[in-house]
Amino acid sequence: MAEVIQGVFPAGEGHGGALAGTSAIAALNLSPEPGDPEGNLLLAERAIVAAWRREPSLRWVVLPELFACGYSALESVHRYAEDADRGASARFFVGLARELGIYIAYGFPEAVAGSVSGVFDSANLAGPEGVLATYRKRNLVRTTPEHYVFTAGTELSIVEAGGLRISLAVCWDLGFPEVAREAALGGADLILAPAAWREPWGSQYDLSCAARALDSGVYLTSANQIGAYPEARFDSPGHVYGLDGLRVSRTADATSIGELDPGAPGRWRRLYGNTIEDQASDVGEEPLEIGS
């Protein structure tokens, strides 16, 4: 089951006087340059600051999968693998999060010092307090070299950040209900999912995001890598999805921004039906005997 970690909530007003009751989230569908971590961090900074200036209530930002080095040439990704807490991208995004008072989810290749586990396709949640959570992609894509390059993760944590309980997922994890369901059973309200979902399956990306939001009764935001790369095209931007599985974001250029209400998950489950609680209460019950 998911591990719940108590985080620190920013209280009161956000920048620009925005109240904490409803806050904005941005999916930044960017085009990182393969093998250029320094340039990609600067690309992220420009996009994040632009979104922050545009949206006074911005509280969370999501960047694509393996954003630090770009999802391309996976056979060389180990060159850019870094420590989750002390690596260059972690230090950079924690500093930016602290400066802007926001939370940033981003993808990067993770190396664990002294471990023989190899490299993980990971996502960090960075905030003013530091790195709050690291998630290692569980479901590696077998139609690409991912399963040869990366080690699959096993753990899932939930942290309180910005007024919601948050869990992470990475791209192909959204193709299966289990990761989102485990997060919801652990109390998550919001799933942040960096992605590099290739064509011609952009429609399935959209459907998978919507399905995971609806069947677990959570908000879900995913940011996709965009552009033509040697291995594939990535044309479908990520969005913000509500508890009903519908998009709740507006899109301008590479940015998709939506508003999240911390009180909505509870209201939705009371009105629509609690798919999490109902499932949990049914575990272990004897099936009804149907007479003829």
Spell out the key features of this protein:
292 residues; alpha/beta; Nitrilase/N-carbamoyl-D-aminoacid amidohydrolase; seven-stranded mixed sheet; six-stranded mixed sheet; 7 helices; 15 strands; 26% helix; globular
CATH-derived architecture: 4-Layer Sandwich
Number of domains: 1
- Please give the alpha-carbon distance between the first and last residues: 40 Å
- Ranges where pLDDT stays below 50 over 5 or more residues in a row are 5-20
CATH topology value:
Nitrilase/N-carbamoyl-D-aminoacid amidohydrolase
Supply Rg: 18 Å
| Beta fraction | 25-35%
Number of strands: 15
Mean pLDDT: 89
Task: Give a description of the structure.
The protein has one domain (3-8, 23-282): 4-Layer Sandwich (Nitrilase/N-carbamoyl-D-aminoacid amidohydrolase). Helix 4 (178-185) links the parallel strand 8 and strand 9 (190-195). The protein is built from seven helices and 15 strands. The chain has helices at residues 37-54, 88-100, 146-149, 178-185, 202-216, 264-272, 275-282, and strands at 3-5, 23-28, 58-62, 103-111, 119-127, 130-136, 157-161, 164-168, 190-195, 219-224, 227-228, 233-234, 240-241, 249-252, 255-260. The strands form three sheets. A seven-stranded mixed sheet has the order 6-5-4-3-2-15-14. A six-stranded mixed sheet has the order 1-7-8-9-10-13, covered by helices on one side. The protein has a two-stranded antiparallel sheet with strand order 11-12. Helices cover 26% and strands 26% of the residues. The model is unreliable at 5-20 (pLDDT under 50). The radius of gyration is 18 Å and the shape is globular.
